[in-house]
Amino acid sequence: MPKIIFIEANGTRHEVEGITGQTVMEAAIKHDVPGIPGECGGACSCATCHVYVDPDWAGKTGTTSETEDDMLDFAFDVRTNSRLSCQIKITDALDGLVLRVPKEQF
Amino acid sequence: MSKEIITTDAVIVGAGPVGLFAIFQLGLVDIKCHVVDILDRPGGQCAELYPEKPIYDIPGYPEITGQALTDNLLAQAAPFAPVFHHGQMVEGLRRLDDGRFELATNGGLVFHTKVLVIAAGGGSFMPKRPPFRNIESFEQSSVFYAVRRIEDFRERNVVIAGGGDSALDWTLNLEPVASRVTLIHRRDKFRAAPDSVAKMQALAKAGRIDFRMGQIMELHGEDGRLRALSGRGADGAAFELEAERLLPFFGLTMKLGPLAEWGLNLNENLIPVNTENFETSEAGIFSIGDINTYPGKLKLILSGFHEAALMAQAAFRIVHPEEKMVFQYTTSSTKLKQKLGVG
Fold first, then answer.
1. CB A77 to CB B162 under 8 A?
2. In this predicted structure, what is the pLDDT of residue B185?
3. Is residue B215 within 8 angstroms of chain A, CB to CB?
4. Cα–Cα distance measured from residue B312 to residue B277, given in angstroms and rounded to the nearest whole number
5. Interface pTM, i.e. ipTM
6. Interface contact B250-A106, CB threshold 8 A
7. Are B144 and B159 a contacting pair, CB within 8 Å?
8. pLDDT at residue B319 above 90?
């Protein structure tokens, strides 16, 4: 099972087992990673699963869809490596993926 | 000021799918409803969050969108002539001496009702508050989430943040009023009517407003008076900007709101109910759908439908205590068919 690494804004590291085919947000919720409430449950209709993709992984996680980019308008401190983690599907190629959790979700 | 009191059998708080189905179930047992919802249209989360998204677990519908489900539920409830009060949030609740309830909304409506049905889902949709440090201290004086009085913005240096219709509409509407309007949005794509976007761009080109691509990160000011904002441009460069008023338009989020103050037992922001009739700790107040909790609760629309049906049986005994409850099926009962206008 691919490992996903979440790093909180305060530096706390969470290494969780992801299930191929599920989303990164689902993995975060399942393992109680702080700072990712995922309020809408993965419908891409809130922005509370916002993460920063580690630059080393940017090429592997793909790019934002139009809906996702629209929804990022509702996130705080959006950067070029911002993604909504409910829109990243876990694949074997993402084993070791590093994501940073923003200081604030809103 | 004397207020006209709306007297009714039942008030349903929340016009989401479960609230809408409650109109139908209450209607079958001769209970008339008024429905109060903070949104400007019925459907709740189905209409607000996912109108176009298909739902796959509504019994009898292999696939249906949030909007189509809402439309069907409205059609199903229509024979019972529910009265909708949109854009209203119930703020106050108290029990009257005769056992009924008095409800007051933030829009000045007052209801007297025999039963109250709380079908408020995840709570009230409220404007999202950006996580700027100390933003609370500027609210009501410099930071507003809606324009209630245009005069608050006259001859002021106004900054509007966001990229949807509210942000664009108020940029256009406040331009003639404010001393200066600056629209800040993180990108040059907008989720707004193309016509409004074109108008905004024309105003910016003519130098009558400023459009800045970027994000606000911090507010500056003293004693509730906003003086300036700082942030980061889309190019990564920091900026600081003078501002007396800020209108952040970052969509809506769900908050429990005033309901928390109604004296009901709560369990982690959910309302515990019994599973016999979905009554709360207060006789005559029922809670159905996502906002309630009980052992085994599943937050599914279909569970809310079941809860509405059982709630209606108990509500009947409160609203029509002198009548005997006769359980009937819509397929065969002449009376029910008449009520539905198909008899």
1. no
2. 98
3. yes
4. 8
5. 0.91
6. yes
7. no
8. yes
